[in-house]
Design a protein that fits this description.
This protein has 2 helices and no strands. The protein is mainly alpha-helical. The two termini are 19 Å apart.
Length: 80
Amino acid sequence: MRESHSSPRRRSLRRAWTLAFAGAAGVGVNLGGIGLTGGPPSLVFWLLWAGGLGLAAALALDTVGFLIGAGLRRIRRSHD
């Protein structure tokens, strides 16, 4: 059976990615200039730093967690 684009499974993964991205991007913006010895970093650097950190967190944490959860749900359903 083919899932629609608005299925609960897709929405929950999108929500998980968004929350992880937002949290990591917020941390990235706040820590982007710590430890640098020159002048403050530019706005472009902070945006790229926050975007890269947010994307890495979303992909690494939530995709793996979602796949583990989906696998466990499938195993549980197969035993019912």
